Protein 1
Amino acid sequence: MNIKSIVLALLALSMLSGCTENSTSSTTATPLVTQSSASNDTLKNTMQVDKDYHSFANPEAVRVTHLNLDLTVDFAEKVLKGTALLEFERVDATATQLILDTRDLTIESVKAKGKALDFELADTDSFLGAALTIEIPNNVNKVEISYQTSPEASGVQWLTPEQTAGKQHPFLFTQAQAIHARSFIPLQDSPQVRVTYKATIRTPKELLAVMSASNDPDTERDGVYEFSMPQPIPAYLIALAVGDLHFKAMGERTGVYSEQGILDAAAAEFSDTESMLIATEKAFGPYSWDRYDLLILPPSFPFGGMENPRLSFITPTVIAGDKSLVALIAHELAHSWSGNTVTNATWRDLWLNEGFTTYLTYRIMQMIYGDERFEMEAVLGRQDLQADIDSLAANDQIMAIDLRGRDPDDVFSNIPYEKGALFLRELEHKVGRDNFDQFLLGYFDNFAFKSITTDQFLSYLEQTLLKEHSDKLSKQRIEQWIFEPGVPEGAPVPESDAFSVVDQARNDWLTGKIQADKIDSEKWVVHQWLYFLNNMPETLTQAQLADLDSEFSLTSSPNNEIAHSWLLISVNNWYQPAFSRLHDYLTSIGRNKLVKPLYKALSQTPEGKVMAQKAFAEAKAGYHPLTVKANQGFVE
Ligand code: BES
Ligand code: ZN
């Protein structure tokens, strides 16, 4: 055996052991094929493509259909406490057990018709949590579980008043995607299982609760809030936030919730949301979710945004004052179609959510802001994709990724997003935009409120677009996009004229032809700055950095994306004048996409690591559990 085959064998073994430990029923004894050459057919021999390897639940036998929550929010103890009533149907009439997912939950009792039921909480798996198996008598079709969460729940962040903008009141928010709903509700935490839900949330009187459900902007602030989500949604879209929240309308169906201090700025920044909603409906079919509101969270929110239905959760770091970062809103809005209406069946199929959404995002940006903006964003997206392709292992470049034995949190990359979007753009280019839009309309309609696998998408594509345009599309090429690493040769190449001038300026400056003060950047927009910075050579001299900084005040850029790019350059070139801002940045923002590359870069040198350790130690108490998990390896 050579080294490579030993490594592969070990890898296969470790993935297999994860798989055997975690799955509740059929496990396979056939070794996994992990090489990049693994074709879909080979994989199918070892993998059940419609099985959710990240849930213990048994929806194939007993399927939960409705959830009724009654929870008290206890800020002093940092726990949610109360009951979850689960209604279910027997898919298998002979089934005697309901199996749910949990993580760090204390289960006090399980009852049906007033009587206690037997239940068992299994041993805890490191990232899947613990199966809760409930014995269900024949005549029972709902169970009431009394439970409470742990203060360390992976899907909940509890903020002290000092960690909020207003400093007066505590704050709480949940983040369930991918497999964290189970840390605050015992349920079938699989995107294949959709439930309608109702909730009663009890909070301190002076606070307001909002959920991914009906929210009445005029509700009385009395500490008891009722919600209803009448459309069936997967567990990862259940969300709750509680704080000193206020509301401002932006349009007829759109508005924003946030702490008072940033409410006006947020409403101004995102004032195009209503137009985005109208334009998206016009192009891709009716919006199914009644209102579309935004909730602006404290800066510790670990993502840019989260598409919780009717109420997207949004990082405040995109409030730039000039709408330069509002593609994020287009993105979360687009998920109302791709993701929330048509959902991935397993986390392997995440690209169906994120790839379609990223494609729609570009289209929305083009409809609202025009071609130039669209082209710049497409080029930047393509560059992000290339960076990942250059750094990720071949298997991690596959859109329909094999995640068995892996924590979805550890596998976050641009592949499902930008590669997915590029694939759809290629389809669009080949069949023409009108035809492709017709296809998308039909797709969203056909699979509305369903959770589908990559294979279901493929067979739908075969019966529709591929059949109608067999002269322009080939199944083989489509499979190459979905099941093979990298980007197929001949893929669309986004281009932007607005970036040519930036390339020219960067070159002239790098070759010493001009000083920074001669760069004609007065009319540059944020995207041009990002393109300017992101394409600098790896090494710059201190004099070059000082020249740029003194001319453009990059260290004090108020734009969090520009600041990010600049700080990364500063770390990689040890440009000390930026380090005080770097420390402030790392200790005031918890959005993982912005802080993780900085921690990673700092961890490359002993001096950098000391700085990272200092910032991390200071920030940790205010970071979200996911941000802590993603970065602590860099400071150990
Ligand atoms: N649904 C995602 C966030 C997510 C993905 C959370 C997977 C957990 C697991 C959200 O819609 C998203 O993609 N956010 C991006 C937005 C960006 C691509 C515009 C983010 O947070 O950076
Ligand atoms: Zn997304």
Protein 2
Amino acid sequence: MTTAAIIVAAGRGQRAGGRVPKQWRALAGRRVADWTIEKFRGRVDHIVLVLSEEDQGAWDEFSGTDLILTQGGSDRSGSVRNGLSALDAFAVQKVLIHDVARPCVSTQIIEQVLDALETQQAAAPGLAVTDALWTADGTVVTGTQDRTGLFAAQTPQGFHYDAIVAAHAAHPGGAPDDVEVARAAGLEVAIVPGDADNIKITRPEDFSRAERILGTDMDVRLGNGYDVHRFGDGDHVILCGVKVPHDRGLQGHSDADVGMHAVTDAIYGALAQGDIGQHFPPSDPQWKGAASQIFLRHAVELAGHMGYRISNVDCTLVCEHPKIGPHAPAMREEMARIMGLRADQVSVKATTSERLGFTGRSEGIASLATACLVKP
Ligand code: MG
């Protein structure tokens, strides 16, 4: 069963204030759209991002990624139709249509909607209205509206792909959401339980509310790594991706980058995905002399596929010589480059072991690392 999500991100979001559309505004350290996209990564097979032609920066940024990009239409329905067309060649059976301005959507809701499509023609989250509802003339109450049977509509709204494509093709336009389009085509739409935290960012004050919600349900993971390589003949060592001249070299199956190995293992550790030796067996000749950035890149990509981003890494090198301090800035830059992070997210520091033990006797270099991974 092939699944997809269409994230509609072409709107201009005037009511939320700010100089840029709300989906590109910062929210808890990322942008609204980044949070929303992340919620669907790993939960559907394909993600379509519908973008305005005015958001050139986003086109540049996301092209060549795992996202399918397509241009927005003249209104929301037009954008959804373009999103559906972009999935034409992917043999999708179930499609979720989601507003980019709902970054707090839970994975539980996404799964409930997908599950409901096993037995239903369409499904969408709805929240039973619990507040009393008034009618008013300006700011004066003129009556009370019966709330029985009223639900607040949320997204993602889920459909069988062929059915919603046909429903959109037949609809005259102007529908506020895709449930209405589906109903107009005679489809029955089941309500799955919505979530009060699945707010749509609409007004300026919604940003701080969304930040509070996102801050409470993050999955934060730590991992540690430890590695040792012994000295042998040579005229340099590779530490954290940087070639450092030395009167000895480090021995190992790969390039023996002890610092990068510890960081790589820390990331695997945070993901509970074993260690370097498991992913790149030393018995396999293809890794002989390999550049360790192959291992680090693999760990970073695995984190991304599992929905985690790396918040920071901290690496300590333990040796008497060579002196690390002069090279530490270059090591941080190089590790950040390989991991796609900023240098201020990467720490490389060093200590001696007071001439004690194997590192003190300069028999080899040890390294310890910690990685912090975050899943929204
Ligand atoms: Mg190693």
